[in-house]
User: What shape does this take?
Amino acid sequence: MSGTKQPAAAAPQPNPPASPPATPAPKAEPVRAKELAAKIASKFPEVKVDYMRERRLKVTAPSSKVKDLGTFVRDELGFDHLDTVSAVDWIGKNEFEIIYFVGSASKPGLEDFILAMAERIPRDDPVAPTLIDVWLAADYNERETHEMFGINFQGHPNQSHLFLPEDWNDIPPLRKDYVSPGR
Amino acid sequence: MTTESEFVPDADRVMAVSLGPQHPGAGHFRIKLWLDGDYLVRSEPDPGYVHRGEEKMGEYRNYIQNVPHLERPVILDSSNILLPYALGVDELMNSAIPPRAQYLRTIMSEANRIISHMYFLGILGIFVGHSTIIEWMMGDRDYWIDFAERIGGARVTFAYIIPGGVRNDMPSFAVEKGLKTCDWFEKRLDEYDKIFLRNPIFLQRTEGVGVLTKEDAIRLGATGTVLRASGVKHDLRKDEPYCAYPELDFSVSTLDAGDSWSRAYVAFLEMRESVKIIRQALKQIPQGPVRLKLGPQPRVPAGEVFSRTEAARGDMSYHIVSDGSPRPYRLKISTPSLKNLRVLPHILRNAHVADIPVIYWSENLWPVEFDR
Assistant: This one.
């Protein structure tokens, strides 16, 4: 944010507040979205860039390439920390979109960056490979996505219900054609 | 504890036990345990008892109606769960938030961090049988709640941080109250250190218990105090500064041991930093408006955003997809407790039964937060 100013009459104080405002510690040169997108494109030409922002990059890969791409961004680019797995039900296009949000906890210059790695799969046959082998932390997030959207993560060792009751026998609740009771 | 009649087939001596879901202190949450005598062979968290479908509810309500129910999953830390939501909607609407609102957001966020950490340390005290500290923490926490009440108008669920700014301005007497509370609380922190965190009995119960190495913390996706107690210096207030944080002077606390004591002590150190932040923010807060006029049913341009902030327990993030209608098309809430829950079975392995409550609570997990 910019344009913040000190109060007009800043009386001298025993512990003067940081003025001029303290700037955040200088960081290593941030690896920016464009560079990352170029690195990904050089290795995976089929990957499509959805958006680039200062601290965000979203790419869409074909479902068959997601695992290789995941391994690449983890090992070569430093995205070692999985934040979460989200999914969107694009019912009009008859597609599910699965998105892995990954950041970095150890690589300098990447700590403010999130890479969103998406794949689109047909709604009629919602099968996607599991990425547990790439990010172990994906375990619960994929289980949640499985129960909420009915997406089958192939290779996932345990897709039992995490949050839903064991005896839930309706369609998965976060699909757009599921209507909450009373709505 | 209730025993179940299921045994691991190939090992007769291993007994399956269910901890919870009505365990006092653990909240509405169950951990399935497999025990060999006094040792834990394996454990499996079983959440879901308080799942409310917040994400589905979010799709039925407009961007303003979503504010009060989104803070329900974590009423202890209610400002911090709303902040990334507000930042995300602001980004989608491309709104420039007034500087005074940025400061007020920061102040409330830090007050909530202290309120949440005091609750955490108090309950950790009672889990190891230190009954003094829970009384102290619960009593002293009320002064911070009083301060937050002066600003937010409610005691716990403020619904204060909203898209476009904050709900109302801070009355001038809140500044005086806040500065007084800061001064008094800093002295109080030294006393907590002596009576509780450096208490030999507490040290014996927590040092070296439930160790999480740096590599495992990253691999398992830990966040917040759990990650920083394992030696990873990752704090979004510094790494990805938002609100008024770039203008304030504070440091990120980390420890290297990764045990239960470090997780508690990092939270303790963070309270000191929070006091510093609140004091500076109260002194240098600029005058001006505190919110933008969005109207009752703001239209958010179509788009997608991933916003995250450092909540009391760690990295709180939202994935918001808008299709241009007044309601979110998709609202994904990713809470720090769920990220840290992924770590729990790992650090419980080979623990003594008596250490389970300590390890469990040292992670500062909150069942309602991970169930949503």
About this structure: Chain A touches chain B through 55 residues (CB under 8 Å). The longest helix of chain A spans residues 138-149.
